[in-house]
Write a structure and sequence with these properties.
- By secondary structure, the chain is of the alpha+beta class.
- The protein has one domain.
- It is built from 2 helices and 4 strands; from the N terminus they run E-H-E-E-E-H.
- Strands 1-2 form a two-stranded parallel ribbon. The protein has a two-stranded antiparallel sheet with strand order 3-4.
- The longest helix is centred in the N-terminal third of the chain and has 12 residues.
- The structure holds flavin-adenine dinucleotide (FAD).
- Flavin-adenine dinucleotide binds next to helix 1.
Length: 85
């Protein structure tokens, strides 16, 4: 699906992150928690990268993580108290 979003480069971004997978989202949370102005650019029409499922017929398939093994990393991210708008 083609995105209709227009990239706002007039704004003073402190960081522009390419990709909204776990990596991009985690980095954004950490930078936001430091008060930085962050833009995430994603080529797909949805966020999450490989953390999604797709359906063929009556079957659902995981495209990536089924079980999160590093839950302490997610706990750590939630402790940053980043304000996400
Ligand atoms: C089949 C499979 C099973 C897995 N199972 C597990 C599991 O059970 N447990 C576990 O912990 N991990 C699992 N993983 C690993 C986990 O999915 C990855 O480590 C994690 O999702 C990677 O996140 P990422 O942000 O690095 O990359 P990605 O999730 O790949 O995100 C990258 C993002 O960048 C975007 N992007 C790329 N290029 C551009 C561009 N030029 N412009 C704009 N956007 C762009 C992509 O569209 C995507 O959204 C699995 C992976 C696979 C493939």
């Amino acid at each position: 699906m083609e995105s209709k979003a227009k990239l706002d480069l007039d704004q003073n971004w402190d960081a522009i992150i390419i990709g909204s997978g776990f990596g991009g989202l985690a980095l954004a949370i950490r930078l936001l928690s430091k008060g930085l102005n962050v833009l995430i650019v994603e080529k797909n029409s949805f966020i999450g990268g490989r953390a999604r499922k797709f359906t063929i017929g009556e079957y659902d398939f995981d495209a990536g993580p089924t079980v999160l093994t590093g839950t302490h990393l997610i706990d750590d991210l939630f402790k940053t108290h980043a304000k996400i708008i």
